[in-house]
TrEMBL record:
It comes from the Eukaryota. GO terms for molecular function: 5'-3' DNA exonuclease activity; 5'-3' RNA exonuclease activity. This is Polymerase/histidinol phosphatase N-terminal domain-containing protein. SUPFAM superfamilies: PHP domain-like. The lineage of its organism: Eukaryota, Viridiplantae, Streptophyta, Embryophyta, Tracheophyta. Gene3D superfamilies: 1.10.150.650, Metal-dependent hydrolases. It comes from Oryza meyeriana var. granulata.
């Protein structure tokens, strides 16, 4: 999981998009709040592009999902997909180790899981680090190029969903979807066309070295918002860009927020309307899991005169942001529910 090295870099806004998990978002938000930073909750979802939708076959594609401060509107649905992917990562890692062993590159499972950390589904980066530590390769890049890259002899697939399915789920759960590092794709044109039809919002174009020939034009051709990121994994070294090294113009951020705000506001409505169907202190705690930490112990019943909408908005938004959100429909429904209890 990505660790934050925030104060030194003076980053003001950071999108945390760990691979196939949002488990680190609450901790990141808590840490960032101390330094006056804003965290955009996100996740990088492993997927496959297959023109004929053949399970287990196709080109690996990474789809970024960016959510508002309230997080996904249907978190359980998203988490089921992410959980299935993580389960598949365990099987995939074991298959890779088996292939490496056959290639006379022995690595123990315990070594990889120790590098990954407790509760973290091991990925290729963890296997690559183990290979470096054991002296099988000189660096992580060599591990990918020689053994575990997409065309490598030790590569294996997991249980990744189809890329179009991922984009559609992000849309249903109130997120902005973006294609990550399209320059790594073998067939970017076909992937981009398919994801456009599925509802993709954006595409990474900017990176630290600026070498993105052709992808800016592709983004314009398909009407995608052009974004960028460091793809920082916390491993350090010269092969990885540091946080904040991709300089995005303020106009890029403004365009992103202009697109995102109505989608995120709609997600807020969905979350609060769903809460209105079953208002309780326990459910209140669940729906603000990505917001600022608030103690709900005192709210034993919903007829205690608590303005639930304002409470949630205080957790999710700044004072200025609260004024922009119109949730009268939600207030009325919650008032009706409370009045019946």
């Amino acid at each position: 999981m990505t660790k934050l090295y925030i104060p030194v870099l003076q980053v003001k806004v950071l999108a945390l998009t760990d691979h196939d998990t949002m488990a680190g978002i609450p901790e990141a938000m808590s840490a960032a709040h101390k330094f006056g930073m804003r965290i955009i909750p996100g996740v990088e979802i492993s997927a496959l592009y297959s023109p004929r939708e053949i399970a287990g076959a196709g080109e690996p594609v990474h789809i970024l999902a960016y959510y508002g401060m309230c997080g996904p509107s249907r978190f359980d649905e998203l988490e089921r997909m992410l959980s299935d992917i993580r389960d598949g990562r365990y099987l995939r890692a074991r298959n890779m180790l088996a292939k490496l062993n056959r290639l006379k590159v022995p690595i123990k499972w315990e070594h990889v899981t120790k590098i990954a950390g407790e509760g973290v589904a091991p990925g290729r980066l963890h296997i690559a680090r183990a290979m470096v530590e054991l002296g099988h390769v000189e660096n992580v890049r060599q591990a990918f190029n020689k053994y575990i890259g997409d065309d490598g002899p030790a590569y294996a697939t997991g249980s990744e969903p189809f890329a179009e399915t991922v984009v559609q789920l992000i849309s249903r759960t109130g997120g902005i979807s973006a294609l990550a590092h399209p320059w790594a794709l073998k067939n970017p044109h076909a992937v981009i066309r398919a994801l456009k039809c599925a509802g993709l919002n954006a595409m990474e174009v900017y990176r630290s070295d600026g070498k993105v020939d052709g992808f800016s034009e592709l983004a314009e051709k398909y009407g995608f918002l052009k974004i960028g990121g460091s793809d920082f994994h916390g491993r350090g070294g010269k092969d990885e860009s540091d946080i904040g090294t991709v300089k995005l113009a303020i106009t890029t951020l403004c365009c992103f927020l202009k697109m995102a705000r109505p989608i995120w506001c709609s997600a807020m409505k969905d979350i609060l309307l769903k809460f209105a169907e079953e208002p309780s202190a326990a459910n209140l705690g669940k729906i603000v899991k990505f917001g600022e930490l608030i103690n709900f112990d005192g709210f034993s019943s919903m007829d205690a005169g608590v303005d639930i909408v304002n409470l949630c908005l205080c957790s999710w938004l700044s004072n200025d942001g609260m004024e922009e959100v119109e949730l009268e429909e939600v207030r009325l429904k919650l008032a009706h529910c409370v009045g019946k209890t």
